[in-house]
Amino acid sequence: MSVYDFEAKKIDGEVVSLNVFKGDVLLIVNTASKCGFTPQYDDLQSLYQKYKDKGLTVLGFPCNQFLGQEPGDELEIDSFCRLNYGVTFPMFAKVDVKGKEAHPLFEYLTENAPGVMGSKAIKWNFTKFLVDKEGNVVRRYAPQTKPFEIENDIKELLKL
């Protein structure tokens, strides 16, 4: 099993198989528009721009499970990301990333890349998961880990 076995609804409502990203290095992030970490959108977009032609794709999954920091609907989220941060990487519809209603992708990610001291649950917005070109979860990063702190790990997977 790999991340390619899952599908998700894009922010525009289209359901896609993550298989369309096969062969790319993926950085999967649960995002929020009203969080202290929201400015990370800038660095996520910069990383995407810098490495997209070399095989990196950033996938953003808005989530409203942490203090209601993603209250808007998909249109509001999409507009916010584009207007304030110039986001062009794929964004998806809002999902739950923990609990009974967690999206199966995030159940898979947390199972395969537990957090500190083996904790599986995502604790906050902007938790990041790095996935190799074969769809295997390589590593999980805490919300406070800035996107450019992951750059060397990305370059290694891209073989740069």
UniProtKB/TrEMBL annotation:
Q: What is this protein called?
A: Glutathione peroxidase
Q: Which residues are named in the active-site annotation?
A: 35
Task: List each coiled-coil range.
Answer: none
Q: Which GO terms describe its molecular function?
A: peroxidase activity
Is the Cytoplasm keyword given for this protein?
A: no
Q: According to its UniProt record, which protein family does this protein belong to? A: Belongs to the glutathione peroxidase family.
Q: Which UniProt keywords apply?
A: Oxidoreductase, Peroxidase
Q: Mind telling me which SUPFAM superfamilies this protein's record contains? A: Thioredoxin-like (SSF52833)
Matching PROSITE patterns:
GLUTATHIONE_PEROXID_2 (PS00763), GLUTATHIONE_PEROXID_3 (PS51355)
The species this protein belongs to is Peribacillus glennii
Alphabetical GO biological process terms? cellular response to oxidative stress
Work out whether the entry's keyword set contains Oxidoreductase.
yes
Taxonomically, what lineage is the organism?
Answer: Bacteria, Bacillati, Bacillota, Bacilli, Bacillales
